[in-house]
Amino acid sequence: MRTKKYPSDTSREQFEIIKPMLESARKKTKPRTVDLYEVWCAVLYLLRTGCQWRALPSDLPKWRTVHSYFAKWSLPDDQGVSLLEQALKKSGWRGPWETGAKRLKRVLDHRRAECEEH
What we know:
With 118 residues, this protein is mainly alpha-helical. Helices cover 55% and strands 0% of the residues. It has helices at 12-23, 36-49, 63-74, 83-91, 100-117. The longest helix has 18 residues, at 100-117. The termini are far apart. The mean pLDDT is 84.
């Protein structure tokens, strides 16, 4: 359990509301070895700061673990909405909804399209 709190963290009470939703994305093949709340806080930290995966603070779960959960939660469902988006809405998240790399790609693609038009 970490001792440091980050501005992006949510309370355990807020997390309990979305926990069943996030747990549904994982196949139950073996017991979970990481605290899902800590993974969620790491994802929120990443979204808030836009840092690189490997730059996640060391007191959060390992970046590969966080990335693995992020990838599962980011897959779109039949309606094209990801579990991550649903959980962020339900939790009342007010920060960005995409990583820094995704924002950069979107901006660059937009700029490229503008350049091609002219």
